[in-house]
Amino acid sequence: MTKKGKHTVLFICLGNICRSPAGEGIMKSLVEKAGLQDEFEIDSAGIGNWHVGQLPDSRMRKCGAEHGYNFNSHARQFQKSDFGRFETIVVMDNENYRAITSMASCQADKDKVVRMADFLTHHREYTTVPDPYYGDYSDFELVITLLEDACQGLLNNLVEE
Ligand code: 4NP
Questions:
Q1: Neighbour-count burial of 41, counting CB atoms closer than 10 A to its CB (0-12 exposed, 13-18 middle, 19+ buried)
Q2: What DSSP assignment string belongs to the chain?
Q3: Phi first, then psi: what are they for 77, rounded to 5°?
Q4: What atom of ligand 1 comes closest to residue 14's alpha carbon?
Q5: What does the pLDDT look like over 31-89, one tens digit per residue?
Q6: How far apart are CA 146 and CA 121, in angstroms?
Q7: Which residues does the annotation mark as catalytic?
Q8: Hey, which of 6, 56, 135, 147 would disulfide with 139, CB 3.0 to 4.6 Å?
Q9: Cα(161)–Cα(118) distance, integer angstroms
Q10: Ligand 1 neighbourhood includes 131 CB (under 6 angstroms)
Q11: How far apart are CA 123 and CA 97, in angstroms?
Q12: What is the pTM of this model?
């Protein structure tokens, strides 16, 4: 929670066109269903800059739509200043974790970085949310399945704080 009294959550992945915009969309949907939208600020960003300004990957958007989501954020690159704007920075895999924590300038900022898979309750056999970019449609389905589980776990964790 920040001084403004809001939970500030930033989802991170490599390109910000598959996993993290899906995390952002699913978390926003869960928060809205819980009537908590005024208590949350939710965003996503990528480690790379290749897709800046783009909508999510068409496969991710299609898969999201089939599950009732509209993933429509535009990609942006993570900035060091995001450590000042967000209390919880959620990464999808270990490569993301290393990239983001290596940009932290103090332990308190490093401690803001958490792994999405640590909030899984139904699919604990996964330790990461695997990158679907070079995969097939079933890999995008898996992203949705894991994010729905983990975002619910994260939401429960934040509201219990
Ligand atoms: P994301 O997937 O990190 O889940 O957005 C990727 C998107 C793009 C690339 C890699 C992963 N890429 O290499 O362009």
A1: middle
A2: --TTS-EEEEEEESSSSSHHHHHHHHHHHHHHHTT-GGGEEEEEEESS-TTTTPPPPHHHHHHHHHTT----PPP-B--TTHHHH-SEEEESSHHHHHHHHTT-SSHHHHTTEEEGGGG-SS-TT-SS----TTS-HHHHHHHHHHHHHHHHHHHHHHHH-
A3: -95, 140
A4: 3
A5: 999 999 999 999 999 999 999 999 999 999 999 999 999 999 999 999 999 999 999 99
A6: 10
A7: 13, 19, 131
A8: 135
A9: 16
A10: yes
A11: 20
A12: 0.97
Q: Which domains does the chain have, with CATH numbers?
A: 8-160 (3.40.50.2300)
**What's the rounded Cα separation, in Å, for the pair 9 and 89?**
6
Rounded distance between C-alpha atoms, residue 132 and residue 129, angstroms: 9
- Paired with 115 in beta bridges are 91
Work out the burial of residue 134: count CB atoms within 10 Å of its CB; fewer than 13 is exposed, 13-18 middle, 19 or more buried: exposed
CB burial readout 78-102, b (16+ within 10 A) else e = beeebbeebebbbbbbeebbebbee
Ligand 1 in reach of 133 Cβ (< 6 A): yes
Tens-place pLDDT, residues 103-117 = 999 999 999 999 999
CA distance 12 to 122: 22
Ligand 1 centroid, distance to 57 Cα (angstroms): 9
